[in-house]
Amino acid sequence: MALSVGLFAQLLVNTLQIGAVYVLFALGLTLVFGVMKVINFAHGQFFTLAALVIAATMPEFTARFGMPAWLDYFVCFGLAFIIVGILGAVLYFVGFERYLRDLVGSFILSVGLLLFLEGIYLWLFGGAPRVVPKLLEGQVSLAGGAMESQRLVICAIALAATAALYQLVAKTRMGKALRAVAEDREAAMLQGIRYRRISFYGFMIGSGLAAISGGLIAPLTAITPALGNDYLAKAFIIIIIGGLGSIPGAILGGFLIAAVESFAGYFLDLSYATIAMFVLVMVFLLVRPQGILGVAER
Amino acid sequence: MIRRRALLAGTTAVLATPYIARAADGVIKFGVFVPLSGAAASWGLGAKWVGEQAAAEINSKGGIKAGGKTYNAEVIAYENGYNSAEGGKAAQAMLNRDGVRFIIQGIGTAPVKALQSLSERTGALMMQVAWGKSVKGPQAPLTFTNSNTPFELFGPLFDLVKRKHPNAKTVALLNPNDATGQEVEAEAVKQYKARGYEILASTWYERGTTEFQPIVTKLAQTKADIMDLSGAPPADSGTVYRELSVQSWKGVKVQSSGTGADAMVKVGGAAVEDVYMGNAADFGGATATPTQRKLNEGALKALNEPVNILHMGAWDALMAIKAGMEATNSVDPKKVAAKLPEIIFESSYGPTAFGGKETYGIAQQMLVPIIVTQIKNGQTVEIERIMPEELKARLAKR
């Protein structure tokens, strides 16, 4: 299997399209961990809910209002974002607020929520795959690699959302507070930062990122209540390799894992690519447990 | 006024239901052991619905008469998750908790094997459509298959593809990396090679995969004349054919175990046009029987998708078991299983029997037509219908 320029370009394009959504999904997970010191196994359920809401409501909107598919999609996307936001707020106040900085308690809570919400989705939406109609026809060529036009738009939105989050964390007052809490909660509180409020903001931003990534993936795949599970497993790999709680680490890790999936998936097969990812995680946990860009806690 | 009457009629019907049920001497539970979620959910949800229609049909015609008693049929569905772990749990619930002794549909080789380890021991009769050859045989006298498997389908399907596309010489295959995929792949490779095809790639993916681009790049780069997604569920096949189209692959599309166009077309759109399927049927078309057409119309209303061959298996299995019970005058699963290979019963296709002793060493394979179809304008169109020679011979002797 020789690696021609065209093939290399295609594998890079595959990396970009897979990685863009991985990064967005993993950013939410790492942000929640950084601020709250909570590992949220239910994160994938926000992602799944957004995709399911879009898939369930779009046919209704199309039938009732007859708007173009892309406009229907964005209206339903907005609706999904609001619903996920409400769910996120409820879960935070009912559950996660009581387990801030409690790894064991939050682990049990979030695993329970994962199973509970998956059951609820199955009951509400049924198990049969749902499909969101294609938003844009046609395909584009990037340096010899082919991609659907709608994939390109979705990648662009995902990258823009990532850049916006980066700006928010790096430049804004709230972003600085988020970083301060993530680095040293006590010192941040001594500076007058309200820890619980910032935790809530962090959790809501994380849920919002999951909703955005779920909404973006909706037109690209068959949607079932188990959709988030595959992404959740990958996101954990990404944030361990990138560094738990590190935003640049999640971006780097996301594209690294996408590259492993793309190249190993081609030269070996997808099953071996998955094994390769887990081997990589084990190596990191043994050699550099704080990940590429994470900071070791003393 | 009309609404008040309708309400009164509805209430009366609801209140009368227990009394109608009491007209029977008992209820026999029939299990449907299928995936009800995930990419293969459309198979399970349809099988459950068709099984319920078969039970309603039997009950409306006076139930099952055996041993001087009359029984009503009740269908209960169990989620097997399309994997052995979930299947094992569902099997325990079905056989030990609920006491089900007749299973009319089992889908998925891995969960069906998990169930079989328990069903054979507890003396439960199982009708299923797992594609593994090892599922049937003298070692499993209570296990039957209610529709065709790769061992019946692939030969006639590949012969037809060869006739229609004589210039195609090479094949690439993609299968899910589980018991179903492995059994299907082995038979597909054997049958393609027997017809002189060169296998350029045979690759795997894990169920639950959502990003298929890396595997599609690998398949597209083979430039194979035929792309066979053998054992992949319809939604996954739609995604793969769509990505293959993006990566400019053009050739003969085959889903040798393909069961229907609906989910594949929803996901794959125009990219799945012309896909050949070995396990699909147009049950709304001219060649369908009145029973099949009625079920198809009902499923379109209830499930928003047509009935496929796996769904239909639940109807045929329940009718076969009913015929077996009435022939033996017993509801003992072992006696019914021993009788089934001898009888001819009325399936949705018409008079049918069990055979396949030459392939499996025991007559546990329901003999139903092999239907080769192709997706045309987003619909399943029948290309060829082949009646099994063994069934022809059995019916001629009648």
What's this entry about, in short?
The complex is a heterodimer of chains A (298) and B (398). Chain A is mostly helical.
How would you name the oligomeric state of the polypeptide chains in this document? heterodimer
Portion of residues in beta strands of chain A equals under 5%
Strand order of the largest sheet of chain A: 1-2
Total domain count of chain A: 1
By DSSP (H or I, 4+ residues per run), the number of helices of chain A equals 11
Q: Order of strands in the sheet with the most strands of chain B?
A: 8-7-9-10-11-16-17
Which spans of chain B have pLDDT < 50 for at least 5 consecutive residues?
12-23
Distance between the termini of chain A: 47 Å
Overall shape of chain B: globular
Q: State Rg of chain A.
A: 19 Å
Derived structural class of chain B: alpha/beta
Helical percent range of chain B? 40-55%
C-alpha Rg of chain B, in Å? 21 Å
Number of strands of chain A: 2
First-last Cα distance of chain B: 57 Å
Helical percentage of chain A = over 70%
Report what the structure shows.
The complex is a heterodimer of chains A (298) and B (398). With 298 residues, chain A is an all-alpha fold. In chain A, 74% of the residues lie in helices and 3% in strands. Chain A is built from eleven helices and two strands, in the order H-H-H-H-E-E-H-H-H-H-H-H-H. Chain A has a two-stranded antiparallel ribbon with strand order 1-2. In chain A, strand 1 and strand 2 form a beta hairpin. In chain A, helix 3 runs antiparallel to helix 8 and helix 9 crosses helix 10. The mean pLDDT of chain A is 91. Chain B has 14 helices and 17 strands. A seven-stranded mixed beta sheet of chain B has the order 8-7-9-10-11-16-17, with helices on both faces. A six-stranded mixed beta sheet of chain B has the order 2-3-1-4-5-6, with helices on both faces. In chain B, helix 3 packs parallel to helix 4. At the A-B interface, helix 1, strand 2, helix 9, helix 10 and helix 11 of A face helix 2, strand 8, helix 7, helix 8 and helix 9 of B.
